[in-house]
Structures are given as structure tokens and as C-alpha cells.
Design brief:
- This protein has about 375 residues and is α/β, with parallel strands linked by helices.
- The chain folds into 2 domains: about 260 residues, Carbamate kinase (3-Layer(aba) Sandwich); about 90 residues, PUA domain (Archaeosine Trna-guanine Transglycosylase, Chain: A, domain 4, Roll), CATH 2.30.130.10.
- It has 14 helices and 15 strands.
- An 8-stranded mixed sheet has the order 3-4-2-1-5-9-10-8, with helices on both faces. Strands 12-11-13-14-15 form a 5-stranded mixed sheet, with helices on both faces.
- Strand 13 and strand 14 form a beta hairpin.
- The protein is elongated and about 70 Å long.
- The protein starts with a strand and ends with a strand.
């Protein structure tokens, strides 16, 4: 069966750990593997880290830059070098590629989100392998994906992928960090993301010296992707041919089963493409109505508001403890909601002095957090 595959490879797999120089053997094997999958008829997207690490090596730097401006400058140096290496290797196998650099702002507006989606679909129809990275050179903090694990999950959702492969520096997920704990137990399959809490998985906050991610970001990416109906695998980046073996059914890495009822494309955009402008804290009844019954949010269920936002901005919906339960597009400004929170819908026109929407967030504009 022909499928759509998104493969993310991290800096720790692309580069040599001590020097930050490119690991050409790994990259060449990755290119051969992805080209072979494309020749079989699969649609393939590669999300590649490494621009900053390659830029550091190119400039003789011994550690990752800490300031945003320096990081952006070094990313500009490294991105050109990285894509040239990919282009040379893919060209030798007669496989066309395309460079796609994204920031979260490309996914915030619905129109630009759709344009990005169409671009990917056209590239895949042409038999091209898009090579995706965050546009570090121009991204600002509030519109950054933060790491390419998150980016790869959003791309997998965008292209309606069947599989997301997260290639990293460990062979699978463990109950603890196997590099420091010899008693760490391997986890082969995760039926639901809540299973990780039951297994008491412990995760470090960083991966390698040159990368920005760690197991935490991979778990978050798996949560996003599985919620979008994408089967996700964490496996070792040094052995890219494992992708083929996994597709053939071999139990390699850790697999996250997709949720049986993935959210619609619009709700996935609301849940993961937008940057929330505020928070609404809800009473227990509103939480149950939204989480269990799929109801819209009414003003009566709101107990507290944080942030300043306009109508149609994205906001987080939280329970009394601050735990996020959903995100949605709000029908009122924060100033208006301060006046009508806790009130019945029939009273809104009297309180505001003009008629307003019956719902604060309609259920069609509300996406549950997985």
C-alpha cells in the first residue's frame, strides 16, 4: 500500500557529536532510503534539523550560539551548506527535492495555512521530496515552533501523513534515560499518550550538545501527530534503513498508535497552528460539557480570564487548576468577556448594551487538547 511518510532527523543524528561536522555516511544512507521509498511510489517529506550545527562547524565555533541574532546568522550560513549536501546526494539518485522553510506565522492565518498545504500537495504530486526546516534566520520567539519535532508533527498533520518517523540518538523510548540508568526498560508500543503517565516515563529536557530537542519534545510531537491520525515512531537516526523494516512490520523503535477518530483539518489548525492570545478558566460543568459532550462554551462557564485578545483570536481553555483542555476561536474581546463571564447568554445584550453571539466559542471552532 502506498503511503505518505514524514521523516524527521535531528541534529544529533546528522552530525558528529564532538565536532558538529556532518555525518556524511548517515546522510547518504538516509538519502538512499528515502529515494528508494519514493521510487516505490510512497510520498515522502523530510524534516531536517542541522542548519545551526552545520553553521557552527563551518565557522569553527565550539558551542551552540546563545543569542537570537547570532543563532539566526549562523543558521543562514548552515542552511545553504546543508541543502547543498542534500541536493548533491539526491541528484546523484535522480531524485528531485525542494527546500521549504517555515515559521509558525505561515500556519497562523487560515489562508496561508491552506496555501502551505497546497504547496506540499503539489510537490508530492510532482514526485518531489520536500526538505523542511524552521526558518531560523527570520523567525521571532513568539512565532517559532521551538524545535523540529513539533514542526514535523504539524507537517505530518498538514499533509495527512500515514507515518511520522522521529529519528533521534536512541533506539526507542525507555522508562528512564538509558544513557544514565542501566535499569531503564524499553517501551515498544504506546496505545494512547496517557499510557506514558502510567509507565512513569522519565524524560530529559535536551538531547545532544548541538540540538534543541530532547525526549520531551518527541513525546509532545507524537501526541500532536497521533491526535491527527498519524502513526508515529521514535527510532535511531544512525540506521535510516530501519524505516523500511518498520514499514514491513518489524518491531523496531517505539510506535505510537494513531487515535481512531482524528480531528478535522480545521480543528487541527486551531489546536496546533495558532498561537493562543489568552486563557479562559472554566468551571467544572463547562469542562465536562466541552470534554465529554462536545458542547460550545457559554459565558456562564467562565470563571477567570487572562490576557488581552480580540474577537476571533485563539485562546486556551483551562480547568480550575490551569490544565489546558481545549483551544478555540473566541467570539468576544477580553474586555467584553470580563463583563459577561459567569452570566447567562440571555443577559449578554443587556450587560454589553448590544446583542452578541450566544456562544463564547462555538463547538465548530473548538478543538480538544489530546
Amino acid at each position: 500500500m502506498l503511503q505518505t511518510l514524514v521523516v524527521k532527523i535531528g541534529t544529533s543524528s546528522l552530525t558528529q557529536p564532538e565536532t558538529g561536522l556532518l555525518s556524511l555516511a548517515t546522510i547518504a544512507t538516509l538519502v538512499e532510503t528515502l529515494s528508494g521509498l519514493r521510487q516505490q511510489g510512497h510520498r515522502v517529506v523530510l524534516v531536517s534539523s542541522g542548519a545551526v550545527g552545520v553553521g557552527c562547524a563551518r565557522l569553527g565555533m565550539t558551542e551552540r550560539p546563545r543569542t537570537i541574532a547570532l543563532k539566526q546568522a549562523i543558521a543562514a550560513v548552515g542552511q545553504g551548506r546543508l541543502i547543498r549536501v542534500y541536493d548533491d546526494l539526491f541528484t546523484s539518485l535522480q531524485q528531485p527535492i525542494a527546500q521549504v522553510l517555515l515559521t509558525r506565522s505561515d500556519l497562523v492565518q487560515r489562508n496561508s495555512y491552506i496555501n502551505v498545504e497546497r504547496t506540499f500537495q503539489e510537490l508530492l504530486e510532482l514526485g518531489v521530496i520536500p526538505i523542511v526546516n524552521e526558518n531560523d534566520t527570520v523567525a521571532v520567539d513568539e512565532l517559532k515552533f521551538g524545535d523540529n519535532d513539533t514542526l514535523s508533527a504539524l507537517v505530518a498533520s498538514l499533509v495527512r501523513a500515514d507515518w511520522l518517523f522521529l529519528l533521534t540518538d536512541v533506539d526507542r523510548l525507555y522508562s528512564a534515560d538509558p544513557r544514565s540508568n542501566p535499569d531503564a526498560q524499553p517501551i515498544l508500543r504506546v496505545d494512547h499518550i496517557d499510557q506514558l503517565k502510567e509507565l512513569q516515563v522519565k524524560m530529559g529536557d535536551r538531547g545532544s550538545r548541538w540540538g534543541t530537542g530532547g525526549m520531551v519534545t518527541k513525546i509532545a510531537a507524537a501526541q500532536i501527530a497521533s491526535g491527527a491520525g498519524v502513526r508515529t515512531v521514535i527510532t535511531e537516526g544512525r540506521f535510516p534503513r530501519n524505516i523500511e523494516k518498520i514499514l514491513q512490520g518489524e518491531p523496531i523503535g517505539t510506535q505510537f498508535d494513531p487515535q481512531p477518530r482524528p480531528a478535522s483539518a480545521r480543528k487541527r489548525w486551531i489546536a496546533h497552528g495558532l498561537v493562543p492570545a489568552g486563557k479562559l478558566y472554566l468551571d467544572d460543568g463547562a469542562v465536562r460539557a466541552i470534554r465529554n459532550a462536545g458542547k460550545s462554551l457559554l459565558a456562564a462557564g467562565i470563571i477567570h480570564i487572562e490576557g488581552g485578545f480580540q474577537a476571533q483570536d485563539a485562546v486556551q481553555l483551562c480547568d480550575r487548576t490551569g490544565q489546558e483542555i481545549a483551544r478555540g476561536l473566541v467570539n468576544y474581546t477580553s474586555d467584553e468577556l470580563q463583563k459577561i463571564k459567569g452570566c447567562r447568554s440571555e443577559a449578554i445584550a443587556t450587560i454589553l448594551g448590544y446583542p452578541g453571539a450566544e456562544t463564547v466559542i462555538h463547538r465548530d471552532n473548538l478543538a480538544l487538547s489530546t
